[in-house]
Each structure stands twice: as structure tokens, then as C-alpha cells.
Amino acid sequence: MKILYIIYSLSAGGAERFLTDLSNSLSERQDCDITILILKREDEQNIFYKKELNGNIHFKSLRIRKIGLSIFYKLYKAIKKEEADVVHIHLSPIILYSILPVLFYRKSAYIETLHNEVSRIDNSSKSKRILKSFIYRFGLVSVCAISDKNYVEFKKVFGRNCEALIYNGRKQLLPTLQIENVKQEIESYKINKDTIVVTHIARCAGQKNQDLLIDAFNQIIIKDRQNIILLVIGSGFDSDKGKSLQDRACKNIHFLGEKYNIQDYLSCSDSFCLSSGYEGMPITLIEALACKCIPLSTPVSGVVDLIEDNANGFISDNFSIASFVDMLNRYIQNREAIDRDKLEELYKMKLSMEACSAEYYKLYQALIAGK
Description:
Mean pLDDT: 95
Number of strands: 13
Order of helices and strands: EHEEHEHHEHEHEHEHEHEHEHEHEHHH
């Protein structure tokens, strides 16, 4: 089985993290020949996860600096050259850039995984919505949802069911050789031995709604005087927006930059906080569960499918600062009631990469047989 994965890059994002794990898992099967094609150039930030790929995975790049009309021909040429049994597309709107092979090179089976809430993808462009509707309604591409909300929303928007619903997975997370250094680092941030440690992992981006995150933590730390610190891990905080967030943040909010060993930070934290305006199935949520880290979140896809408020995590009622602050205070008051071992059990039951890749393998087989 020859599989071609297409994505913008292997930068430090959730979809990129997922694809790296999925590729590695499937490449261990003797009958799987895996190629990853990124659209962007192989700059350092675009190949963040490349060094984690198994040696038998082929890695290629279209070396595109800026998306233009040439991408349609370049993708057509690249896909046709690969002659893959399955072409698996990740992140929008790559499916639109692949319209030529989707229409005129039908030797491959095409599938797209929906990594974000459907109503939020390309919703600013009428032409993109029309073209996507054409592709989906005529069944030119199979679609895989990654959460129950994701699945239901797709049918509402495009009038047909997805071919599959497969929760995202993550490989088992083990402490690295840096774990003791991380423990000491976090201890240096704490106010005292009872300080609650919350970790946020995301790039600096509008989708991640970090204005809400910083404003809410400023309020509970400064106004409510809670004994709590926030660790912010991710790229982009050296941008103008990121610097603005850092300037607004109080002294108990620490910006740590990108990290390869996020499992060490999560294992040394009490909880994981997500402030996003929309998601699909956050990889960081899965990582938090695997590390027995209590999830705190806005009510986005993935979170509402896995987390029950006050039972195995805490979810704000809406996206307002008042609701988010209320959720954080409920967590502080009731966190001891959460059985953290059950968070790990949830990960092992539903969110391991072994289970996820097995489901994708069966899906690929069905798609090939269907052709």
C-alpha cells in the first residue's frame, strides 16, 4: 500500500504532530510505503518534526515560498508522479489546491481529514465554499472527521456524512532525559510549594484566543490572588502580537518558547489549559490526558466530546472572560476531586496512536478496495 500524505509543513502544530506519529506508526507495517509531501520550503520552522520520522519514510517538498496559481500544476504533477494508492490530505484549503488531480487523476483514492471545526474552515470565502461543496457532494474525496461534533457539523454544512470518524491519536509519551531539569525549572517559577502549575501549549495565533488566556489568568492571579502560575509553551510569541501578550501578562505568567519535550512539562504540571475559539480534536488535549494533566478549556470540538465538566476536567460555559475565569476558579476549588489516573485510562482506551493508525489502515484498505 503506497500512501502519500500532503500537508503545508511539519512545523510545531497539532496536525503536524499527529501526521508525524501516524506516519511512523504505519511505516512499521511491512506493506506500507509512506511519503510525506510538504508544500512549503524546508526552512527550520517548517521541518520541526522531520527529525522524528522513521528512516523508511520518504520526505519531499514543493519548496513553495508563496501560494499562487502555480501550486495547482505543481501538486497535480507531484501527485501523478507518486502513483500512490491513497492520497491523504491534511489542513485546509489543500484539498482545493489538489482539484486538478482530484478531477483528472483518479488512479488514487483521495481522503481528507478535517482538523478543525467545519463551519470555521474557509468561511470567509464564498468561492472556496462553493468549490468545496462541489468536491464533497460529488464524492470526489472521502472525508474523515476527528470528533463527534466535527462529524455532525460536516453533515450540516455539506449535506452528507463523512466516510469515517476516527479520533486523533498520539504515541505514548515517556519522560525524556530532561525531566529533572524541567522539574527544577518549574520549581523556580513557583511562589511556594503549594503553587498550582498550569501549562498552555499552542502557537501564538488568533484561533488559540490567547487574549482570553492572559486576561483571565491576570484576573485570578492579581485580583483574586490565587496561588497559581501559567506556563506558555509555543512558537510565535516573538511576533508583535506575542510581544503584546507578554507585555500584558503578570509576573506569574511565563513564556517558554517551543519545546520538544512537552511531556516533561505536562508531567510536572497540575493542569493543561486551552483557550481556543475553535478546534477539531486538539493533540495537546490528548497529550495532557496521557500525562494525567487535568484539562481546562473553552467548549470547543474534541474537548466537549471527551471531557465532562467537573468530572474529568473543567469547561467554561462560553467564550467570555467571565465564564473562563469562573471555570478556572471552579478548578482551583474542586481539582482534588478529579481522578487523574482515569485521565490516562481515557487516553489508552480511545486516543492511543496504535488504535488510531489501525483504524486509518482499515479505512485505506476499504478505499482501495472501493476503487
